[in-house]
């Protein structure tokens, strides 16, 4: 499986007009697949490049689907969250978040 899976509709992709950027919020939801946290940076860079923006307003990560009875660990999620925090510090992302976490893992991450 590739580190980054790019899904685009070429005829529907266009760069954001710089004059309109102030009026737009640009968000992305990244679905984690695999165990390479650097794929977060690659995906953010790819989105910024495709849209012609310097930063994304928000990025949400979603863990991979898991089988019933199996729980993700904080140790699995921390490298991805750390990469997101690094991108916020470097002003590539304004706000970060998660989705599809169970209560325990969300509390641990917090």
UniProtKB/TrEMBL annotation:
InterPro entries: Gclm (IPR032963), NAD(P)_OxRdtase_dom_sf (IPR036812). GO terms for cellular component: glutamate-cysteine ligase complex. One of its GO terms (molecular function) is ligase activity. Keywords: Glutathione biosynthesis, Ligase. Pathway: Sulfur metabolism; glutathione biosynthesis; glutathione from L-cysteine and L-glutamate: step 1/2. GO terms for biological process: glutathione biosynthetic process. PANTHER family: GLUTAMATE CYSTEINE LIGASE REGULATORY SUBUNIT, GLUTAMATE--CYSTEINE LIGASE REGULATORY SUBUNIT. Heterodimer of a catalytic heavy chain and a regulatory light chain. This is GCS light chain. It comes from Chelydra serpentina.
């Amino acid at each position: 499986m590739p580190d980054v899976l790019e899904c685009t509709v070429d005829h529907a992709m266009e760069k954001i007009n710089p004059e309109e950027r102030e009026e737009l919020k640009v968000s992305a939801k990244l679905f984690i697949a695999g165990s390479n946290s650097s794929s977060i940076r690659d995906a953010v860079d790819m989105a910024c490049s495709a849209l012609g923006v310097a930063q994304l307003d928000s990025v949400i990560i979603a863990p991979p689907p898991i089988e019933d009875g199996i729980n993700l660990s904080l140790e699995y999620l921390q490298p991805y969250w750390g990469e997101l925090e690094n991108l916020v510090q470097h002003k590539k992302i304004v706000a970060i978040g998660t989705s599809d976490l169970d209560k325990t893992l969300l509390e641990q991450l917090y």
